Amino acid sequence: MKVALVHELLTQKGGAERVLRVLAAMYPDAPIYTLLYDEKKLGDWFPRTRIRTSALQKFARFSSNHHYYLSWFPNAVEAWNFDPCSSHHPPPSLKLRRTGNPLPFEGEREECFDLVISSSSAFAHGIITNGKPKHLCYVHSPARYLWDRTHDVLTQSSKGLLGPLKRWYLSHLFHTLRIWDAESADRPDALLAASKTVQRRIELYWRRESAVIYPPIDDHWFSVSHRSHVLGPRSYFLIVSTLAPYKRIDIAIEAYNHLRLPLTITGSGPDRKRLERLAGPTVTFLGYVPEENLPDLYRGAIATICPGDEDFGLVPLESMACGTPVIAFRSGGALETIQENITGQFFNEPTAPSLAEAIQYFDRSHFSEDTCRAHAQKFSREAFEKDIRSAVAKLLIVS
């Protein structure tokens, strides 16, 4: 069986890319189609030899900000032909070929596939397969900036001298993309949702049914070497996250500034400079931390803080696998991964005062390391792979 994998952007390491990494290991011969690829950041996970980029890759040399290319993304995913052996492939709905590159992706190869598995957070579900090959789409979430976060994004964009113009442009662009998003959601032969929260969004925005398969946590988080490491007293709270506005790290900084408690933040992202300006003397930024160094950081923390509304969220599971409980906003995927007062604690409002109150009432001695680890084991890679293979078999048998 010839399999292809599709993922919107390979420009940073996050939860969606970790899922793709597992899929890539399950299907080691499958090429990976992506709109934009940053080899410096992702080359160790996804070697260039497996990558098929879109025509938009040529623009990456001028700017790494993919938001400049949003209007061209639908056409770019439609340009990929997964059945070149067929005599007919529908043309893209928009004219993209402004790059002078006559190929739909760099290094085009004539490959006919039996199955395409897409990993979609915005556009990958819109590829055209026409039922041959079969298309199984793993949905991390319908594009949140097109649906439930639209007004937040538009409000943020309206700031500054050119704010009104940016807001007008994005408002019209989002309207066009929403229409495409909803229509193209009918293209996959079957949908898999990363959580029940995502499943509800798929039903609400796309009017389609889906099956839930939770993202996996890597087996190495449970290794004996991590658990046996001798640590001193826990002396800080921890955030492990991409530094982006929607992660709401700003409310955590505000809370810890007020409480004058130590907070360590790991990760990189576009919001770092703003967050550093907000931070008081008890807040420390470590920047990007290699994955092999994260277990000791988790185990040395009093608790891991998850202030954002996540579609699913692997960080709480990584923390629990290291025996450390979580304090998270009571919403989204956290409700499916955290057992209240057993493996973690919730705060009810997305505000600094609400988080500060939860921190003040948090008692680390009430949480068992072994209980946290046992709960994280339920989200194993083995279970994920079994469910994916079952979904693939079901799709191909039905066909």
Provide structural commentary.
The strands form two sheets. A seven-stranded parallel sheet has the order 3-2-1-4-5-6-7. It has a six-stranded parallel sheet with strand order 10-9-8-11-12-13, sandwiched between helices. Helix 4 (150-157) packs antiparallel against helix 5 (163-184), helix 8 (249-259) crosses helix 13 (352-361) and helix 11 (315-321) crosses helix 14. The protein is globular, with a radius of gyration of 22 Å. By secondary structure, it is α/β, with parallel strands linked by helices. It folds into two domains: 3-142 and 185-216 and 381-398, Rossmann fold (3-Layer(aba) Sandwich); 219-379, 3-Layer(aba) Sandwich (Rossmann fold). Helix 9 links the parallel strand 9 and strand 10 (283-287). The chain has 15 helices and 13 strands.
What is the secondary structure topology, with strand pairs?
Elements: E1 3-10, H1 15-26, E2 32-37, H2 39-42, E3 51-53, H3 73-78, E4 115-120, E5 134-139, H4 150-157, H5 163-184, E6 190-193, H6 196-206, E7 211-212, H7 224-227, E8 236-240, H8 249-259, E9 263-266, H9 272-278, E10 283-287, H10 294-299, E11 301-306, H11 315-321, E12 326-329, H12 334-337, E13 344-347, H13 352-361, H14 369-376, H15 381-398
Parallel strand pairs: 1-2, 1-4, 2-3, 4-5, 5-6, 6-7, 8-9, 8-11, 9-10, 11-12, 12-13
Helix pairs in contact: 4-5, 8-13, 11-14
